[in-house]
């Protein structure tokens, strides 16, 4: 069965929208963030939600392309959150509670997003800087997603286990980002 044959009408969620003008003081934004930060939050949330609520609905959960897209989205969302954290922390624009949330989101970043794995996911590189294979010979298995790469980099963690960790990190970011908005669901328009 091809991918197009596996996608059925109704697999995608129903989409709605709220029209608002970011050039005006919009009640959709919460907090005292400046416009650039608010728009960055909106952009990051849009990326995360597209991967979670659209792509995950039409692609099999164990699909390597979906996994790669999820990884890239989460990596760039974490990078964006880190940039916002640095910007706002330097300007003393964060209260202690928000600062702790940022730190929690960023705490295990290098544990689960090491640079050699990022190189594999984003640039299709399967070797380190010294040109050594990142897939350990004893863990190489063509039947595994990415042929054992995840098991090699993450000390035996399986594809499914790491995929759950990625989903959990994505969901943490989604909750934080959604908390930065006032969404009145009664204003959502569904009929275009």
Put the structure in a nutshell.
This protein has 192 residues and is mainly alpha-helical.
Record the SSE blueprint:
Blueprint: H1 3-6, H2 35-58, H3 64-90, H4 96-106, H5 109-112, H6 115-123, H7 149-153, H8 159-178
Helix pairs in contact: 2-3, 2-8, 3-4, 3-8
- Beta strands, count: 0
Distance between the first and last residues' Cα: 33 Å
- As a percent range, the share of strand residues is under 5%
Give the radius of gyration: 19 Å
Helix content: 40-55%
Q: List unreliable stretches of 5+ residues.
A: none
Mean pLDDT: 84
Which series of helices and strands comes N to C? HHHHHHHH
Biggest sheet architecture: none
Overall spatial form:
globular
Number of helices: 8
Structural class: mainly alpha
Explain what this protein looks like in three dimensions:
The protein is mostly helical. It is built from eight helices and no strands. It has helices at residues 3-6, 35-58, 64-90, 96-106, 109-112, 115-123, 149-153, 159-178. Helix 2 runs antiparallel to helix 3, helix 2 packs antiparallel against helix 8 (159-178) and helix 3 runs antiparallel to helix 4 (96-106).
Supply the key terms.
54% helix; 8 helices; single chain; 192 residues; globular; mainly alpha
